[in-house]
Every structure is written in structure tokens, then in C-alpha cells.
Specification:
The complex is a heterodimer of chains A (222) and B (310). Chain A has 222 residues and is of the alpha/beta class. Chain A contains 8 helices and 7 strands, in the order βαβααβααβαβββαα. In chain A, the strands form 2 sheets. A 4-stranded parallel beta sheet of chain A has the order 3-2-4-5, sandwiched between helices. Chain A has a 3-stranded antiparallel beta sheet with strand order 1-6-7. In chain A, a hairpin with a 2-residue loop joins strand 6 (114-124) and strand 7. The longest helix of chain A has 18 residues, at 39-56. Chain A starts with a strand and ends in a 34-residue tail after the last helix. Chain B has an 8-stranded parallel barrel, surrounded by 7 helices. Chain B has helices at 9-15, 33-43, 64-73, 89-101, 131-143, 175-185, 198-210, 229-238, 246-253, 260-276, 295-301, and strands at residues 20-25, 49-52, 78-83, 106-110, 160-165, 189-194, 218-223, 283-286. Chain B has 11 helices and 8 strands. Helices cover 39% and strands 14% of the residues of chain B. The chains are: A alpha/beta (222), B alpha/beta (310). The A-B interface holds A 153-172, 177, 180, 183, 195-196, 198-202, 204 and B 85, 89, 111-114, 116-117, 125, 127-133, 136-137, 148, 164-166, 169-171, 174, 177-178, 180-181, 184-185, 193, 240-241.
Chain lengths: 222, 310
């Protein structure tokens, strides 16, 4: 899933300072799962904003909406009936949701309520970790199912650098060395010989370096 | 290993069978060429070639290539260190051509320390290639006259290609295999991380020799003199992948503060003498960090002077 974190309240209050009628738009997708921008967070955030405005003696009308998915025009369309009644939108979906709102409702400013951080999963209750950098050219079959692009701080493809110490990364001792994880896994799989293969330079044109990427499925296009 | 791949003096010294000595020069944090010359002066006659670091520890310094050229003008055979942290494949290949055109004969291919611990932790890193891919790319440019993309280049860069290895980083069981990968990629020489734990270095070298790698690549053992107990402790606890045994720290602690530097030099000389006896070691790489004035004493103390006139 896409993992996000809510921005500090002060930053959000500053963004919406000039407005008195806003729509706070959540999303029931990834950001609901990682507890950053779902229905519950819409409710809590709206209440926090109202309380703060109350202490300032400035009223604010907040319409609370949580869309099925903000990254889908079909659901974004559901705001059409009342969007123009408001001065601004605060989206707590990922960066995709914010942009889909901005693309659809051109006359209304849209503000991001979360920082979109990474593609990852829940490591345990309340802890999410990054697993994929969406490089567009997956090499997990070569590296025991552990991503060197994401898990190695230098995205090395041919083994651990000289800073791997006791299974930890030189960047921070709280980060496991990605290559230690890969080698441990290859060993368990009985595939240590894979380590001797020289992996050639990666084709980064499939990553973000080629501009915004597109997936086109002719079989699904109408 | 008989025909020369470059104009490198280091290559000639090694191929003639001498026990090689290389030194290191860290460029200044400013545009002062005199700082390089001063460090160079201290190394004259002590080393066969001198490494010039490339923004080591991810701290901005004068460029390695510019500093190499200053040292070359002084008569040195510089070893250009180049990290993949700050350059993509276009910049690396371009700098390789430029270095060769300026008469630089040696290049040491490194991944580079992560910027997190440097002076610009907000920087965006590159790491388009890793050090092994960089070795492979330069070898291909030199031996096949082709860029990474397969296209032909005009005049081939004649470089003696080096790589580093850290026998003290983890996991230990693949450290010799990592060296094997660097050799397979085309490294001509290897300079190791600073050795304080000779026992562990010996174990690593045994694995290297068992794979026959010492016959395919020249291995220069890294030596760093410890100035004080404080430096020893710092190296042990703050520098990832550095192995400073407690006995060494105790030994330094056992002498008065003003004598610790002297003891550090003694230790460095002893380590050189010990590793000289290890099969497969072809020389030493002395990294006297901001202590270049002691290199002569170390090289002389280890019985490695005078250096061969090649």
C-alpha cells in the first residue's frame, strides 16, 4: 500500500487560514489502512481544526467526505454536486488523491493534508516499513525476494558495501543491512552461488527518470 | 600480468615484484592548491603512488581530479579515487576520459560513504552504478573501447584500475567472494580498509589465496597510524566496518598521552611487518589521516625505503 503520515496540525492550519468553508476529503484506500487519511482521521482532523478555530474566535465550516478511492475519477466525481459551494479542499489521501482532486476541480484550491512517504506494509501494529521504490524493473527473483533498491541505503546490486556491521547499515544502526538480509535468505534457499553473478547496471529509464510513467492496457481501454 | 595496461608507476612497481607503498592525500575544504602541495611535499620519496580521496565521509572538498593534477605536476603518480555516490554513468565515463586525457594513470572505484553522515545530509545521492559495475565499465572502456551502452569510443583511457575491499565488514563469510566479484569485473589492484585486527585480516587473506585471487589482482593492505586512544576509540565505535581490537586500545592507554602518537606509529610499523609475511599481500596503502608528516617515519621504520626508481 501507499503509506502516508499526517502533516503537523500547525502546517495544515496555516494552509487553510484564509478560508471559512472547506471540504476535508479522506480516502478509504491505502491511507485508511495506514491510519493517515481514512474516515476516522477525517472525523478527528475536522474536530481538531474546529476546536482550534474556536479558540481563535474564527468559525469554519468543514464538510467531511471520505471517498472510496481518491485515485479514481469515478469516485472523485462524487464531489461535483457541492464542490463549488466551498472555498478550498484539504485532502488527506496520498499525493495521487490530491492531484486527482486538483485536476478535476480546477477552480478550487486543494491542499495536501498528509506527506506521502512510501510503498510498504505493516511490519507490526502501528509500524509501517518501506518495501518497494517502484523502480519499474523488478529484480526480486535475483535477490532472494528482498529488494536491494529499497532495503540497501545505496541501492547496490552486487553485495554489501564496506559499511555493513553486525547486520546493520552504516547509515543508522536501526536499519538492517539490506544485503545481509539478502545473503541470509539466499543461504536459506541454498542459492548462495547467485551472489557470485555480476549484476549489470540497472535500466533506470523504467524508473522515475523517464518522466511520469503510464501503464496502458489495451484489453481494458474503451 | 606482464604487459602494461597503463603508464602507471604503481603498475610497474607491482609487476617488477616490489612490495608497493601507496599513500593518501585528502584535499582541502577550500580552493587552496598549496594545501595539496604541502601534503605532497611530505610524501616525496616515500610512496610509489598517492591516492586522492573523493569527498571522503561525504564532506565537500576540492575535487579529486583537480588535486590529482596538482600532485602530478609535482612528479607523483596519483590514484584518482572516484565514488558512485555523486555521479551517474554519464558523469563517471566522462570523468574517466578526462582523467586519462590529463595523464592520470590510476583510478580507484568506490561506492562512497553515504551522505547521511556527511556535511550535506540533505543531498540527493546518485548510486546509478555500484563500485563493481564501475570497475567493469572502465575495464570495458580501456580494453574494448566501448561505453556502457556498447557504443565505441575514440581514444581508449589507459588506466590501472583499482577497487577497495573491507575484510572487517559483515558478513565476513562473503567478503572474499565480494573481492572475487571485483576481480571478475576487472580490478587490477585492491586497497583494503585500515587493518588493526591482523588475525582477521589473515583469515580473510587465506580465503582470498584459496580462491587464487592473489594471482589475479595485486592486494595492498590498508594501514592507518593511530594518533591517540581517543582516535582508536572513535574508529572502533563511530566508523562502521572498522575493527579495532581492545588490546590495541589498552596498549595505547598504557602509555602517557604525549607518547601515544609514537606508540601508534610503532603499532603501524609492526602491523606492516606482520602483514608483509602474509601470502598474497603485494604492498601497503598508508592512510595517515591528517598526519602525512609521519608517513616517512612509518615507511622507513618498516624498512621500505628507498622506493624503487621506476
Amino acid at each position: 500500500m501507499v503509506v502516508a503520515e499526517q502533516k503537523p496540525l500547525e502546517e495544515l492550519l496555516e494552509m487553510i487560514r484564509p478560508y471559512e468553508r472547506i471540504i476535508l476529503v479522506g480516502c478509504k484506500g491505502c491511507v485508511a489502512v495506514c491510519a493517515a487519511g481514512g474516515e476516522r482521521e477525517v472525523r478527528f482532523l475536522a474536530s481538531a481544526i474546529r476546536t482550534h478555530r474556536g479558540t481563535e474566535g474564527r468559525k469554519i465550516e468543514i464538510r467531511e467526505v471520505t471517498l472510496e478511492r481518491q485515485c479514481d475519477p469515478e469516485y472523485v466525481e462524487q464531489l461535483r454536486g457541492f464542490a463549488s459551494d466551498y472555498q478550498a479542499m484539504l485532502s488527506i489521501a496520498c499525493g495521487v488523491g490530491v492531484q486527482f482532486l486538483a485536476e478535476r476541480y480546477k477552480q478550487i484550491p486543494v491542499f495536501p493534508g498528509v506527506n506521502t512517504t512510501f510503498v510498504g506494509g505493516a511490519e507490526k501494529q502501528g509500524v509501517w516499513g518501506e518495501r518497494c521504490q517502484c523502480c519499474g524493473d523488478c529484480v526480486l527473483h535475483l535477490t532472494g525476494g528482498i529488494c536491494p533498491i529499497t532495503r540497501c541505503s545505496k541501492s547496490l546490486l552486487n553485495g554489501p558495501c564496506g559499511g555493513s556491521s553486525n547486520g546493520k547499515c552504516e547509515v543508522d544502526p536501526s536499519i538492517p543491512c539490506g544485503w545481509q538480509l539478502i545473503l541470509d535468505r539466499l543461504k536459506e534457499l541454498g542459492q548462495m552461488e547467485r551472489y557470485l553473478e555480476l549484476i549489470p547496471p540497472k535500466d533506470w529509464s523504467k524508473s522515475r527518470d523517464g518522466g511520469p510513467r503510464k501503464v496502458q492496457r489495451e484489453d481494458l481501454m474503451r | 600480468m606482464n604487459d602494461y595496461k597503463s603508464q602507471s608507476r604503481l603498475e610497474r612497481v607491482l609487476k617488477a615484484g616490489y612490495f608497493a607503498v601507496t599513500g593518501e592525500c585528502g584535499p582541502p575544504r577550500g580552493a587552496d592548491p598549496e594545501a595539496i602541495r604541502k601534503k605532497g611535499e611530505l610524501l616525496i620519496g616515500c610512496v610509489d603512488a598517492v591516492n586522492v580521496t573523493d569527498c571522503q565521509t561525504a564532506v565537500v572538498r576540492m575535487s579529486s581530479l583537480a588535486s590529482c593534477l596538482i600532485l602530478k605536476e609535482m612528479g607523483f603518480d596519483p590514484i584518482l579515487q572516484m565514488v558512485t555516490r555523486d555521479r551517474n554513468r554519464i558523469a563517471i565515463q566522462s570523468d574517466v576520459l578526462g582523467a586519462a586525457a590529463l595523464g592520470i594513470n590510476n583510478i580507484l572505484c568506490l561506492t562512497g560513504d553515504h551522505q547521511k553522515a556527511g556535511d550535506h545530509p540533505q543531498a540527493k545521492n546518485v548510486f546509478d552504478l555500484d563500485s563493481i559495475q564501475m570497475v567493469q565499465a572502465i575495464k570495458r572502456m580501456r580494453d574494448e573501447g566501448r561505453f556502457i551502452n556498447g557504443e565505441e569510443l575514440t581514444v581508449r583511457p589507459r588506466l590501472f584500475i583499482g577497487a577497495a575491499e573491507n575484510p572487517f565488514a559483515d558478513p565476513f563469510e562473503i567478503r572474499h567472494l565480494r573481492l572475487a566479484k571485483k576481480v571478475a569485473a576487472g580490478a587490477d589492484f585492491i586497497q583494503t580498509q585500515c587493518i588493526f585486527n591482523v588475525k582477521r585480516f589473515r583469515e580473510w587473506m587465506k580465503r582470498v589465496v584459496d580462491l587464487g585471487l592473489h594471482e589475479k589482482v595485486y592486494i595492498l593492505a590498508g594501514i592507518t597510524p593511530l594518533k591517540s586512544v581517543g582516535m582508536a576509540r572513535y574508529m572502533k565505535t563511530q566508523v562502521p566496518g572498522m575493527d579495532v581490537p581492545d588490546e590495541l586500545i589498552e596498549r595505547l592507554k598504557g602509555v602517557p598521552k604525549e607518547k601515544q602518537g609514537e606508540e601508534g606509529i610503532k603499532i603501524a610499523i609492526e602491523i606492516i611487518q606482520e602483514i608483509r609475511e602474509i601470502e598474497g599481500v603485494h604492498g601497503v596503502h598508508i592512510m595517515a589521516i591528517e598526519w602525512e608528516e609521519k608517513v616517512k617515519e612509518i615507511v622507513e621504520g618498516a624498512g621500505l625505503l628507498p622506493r624503487p626508481q621506476i
